Amino acid sequence: MLSRDERRSPERSVQLAASLFLTIGLILQVWRIWTLNATYDQGLFLQEIWSGHLGRPFESTLASQLSTPVLVHGTALPGLGYFHLGQHFTPLLMVWLPLVMLLGVWSLPLVQVGLLTAGGLVLHQLARVDLPPRLAAWITCSYFAAGIVIGPALENFHDLCAIPVLSFGLLLGIRRNIPWLYGLCALLLPFVREDVGLLSFSFGLWMMVRCHRGWRWAGLGLCLYSALMVVLITNVWMPLFGSEVADRFMEERFGQFLAAQNGRGSTLDVLRAMASQPLLLLQELLQPIGPSLRFLITLWLPLAFLPAAALDGWLLMAGPLFVALSSQGGNALAVSLRFVLYLVPGVFAGGILWWARHPHLFHERWLKRLWRTALVLSVLFTITGNPHRSLSALIPDSVQPWVYVSPWRQLQRGWETRELLRSIPPEASVAAETHLVPLLAERRVLLRFPESSAYTDDQKQKQPAQWVVSQPGFNADYAPAFRRNGAWVRRSQAQIKMLLADGSYRVHRCDQRGIVLRHQSVPSTSSDELSLSEGDICVNAQFAQAFSQMQQRGDASAPAE
Q1: Which listed residue, 13, 264, 338, 479, has the most CB atoms within 10 A of its CB?
Q2: pTM
Q3: 456 with 463: CB under 8 angstroms?
Q4: Which residues pair with 553 in a beta bridge?
Q5: In angstroms, rounded to a whole number, what is the distance separating the alpha carbons of residues 182 and 544?
């Protein structure tokens, strides 16, 4: 039995917070995957890592659907031979290949939640260097209660989940004067993703301004290394795999600065354009004022705002914050998405450094009360926001119009879907709707339907997907509140009718669980396969039921029966 003092010890509090974060995070991630609330990126990253065991790491037909020729120009089909490195340079992901081969679709939640939990534990070690044990524990518990950490932990898998553990490890190497730890983390950070070099550049800037002389030269070296890596990766290495940086990402994020170049350009072009348009840059940094202020308030809320008064936190996140404020698009200031992880190290490491200079304030009751209130608000705002539909068993997906699927129905839907997919061979090529992608991603060819039902093979020849899967009822459940779900029902109906009309596909399975089409080139292995007339009748009935459901629940865009 633990004594009362042991139960109240700071170390015990940190262990409890980390255990709760890890356990609840894994449970919710497993729930998302089972109930089909995990979507495209979950499958995309699984497929590109899984491809490593074939000797083709980062190859992904799902990523190919997001390439410039397919998504932007519409001049090509998705195909084999496309590597996701053209969109995001993430070589460290291959570390997880053995785990993916062992656990399959369940591996990536373990990686994501596990790395973010490890980041909190390294943060605790960092805090203990400068702070008394109880204050260090408060900082760490604030990390585990922060919406800017919880949100990304519950998202579809992403490459940025390694940022906290490497960032706090780098800073721990500095504070404890462990050069090898600093050097290892500094070396690896730019290989998490191409733009993480902006974060390590900010660390170098902080080192030059705030560290003692011995580390200032290391800070200069880190700035030079980070800048060189960003330039090399985005201007030399990534263009070897695709043109997405110049043709897509720069326009999506910084097109306002590249108007003279029709929105196209490299990272260097964007920097030159910003420097030549200082008034536009200032306007982008300051506007819109409301969303920017809410973004900054949410960042500092877990630490009760006080560390925001110091310089350290702002220096540590200078690069990523500059990008977030100067970018266009709704994702730039979204506090529950992966991108906010660029700022998490600056917030919490900055908090440690502020408290190191004001430790006496921790004994003030009013401040502890303020901090507790801020933590409660952070958790409440996160829960009520239902990040990434992780809490849809308890919270409606939409209130007006009302969209809620009961937990029992979600569990049942997960089981029925797996039964529906059981007849599809594991090596077959498949086109499936977005919510089905994570369950089918361990194969070379997987396409998002209805966007695509054909691809190009290794010889660049057009090939049809051997299997097509659609669940009109699933999307109809969400169509009243989410337009794209209604659009998917209509587009899936049109595509399936076309595929059946030209005789290239047969209805393999069709019932309340969904529709599975088999290409005629694939021999039938089921005696229960529907005849042509039965298949047409069943498909029409399933879509008619979906449209009727959409109309009854208030989707005015659903066609009349």
Answers
A1: 479
A2: 0.93
A3: yes
A4: none
A5: 61
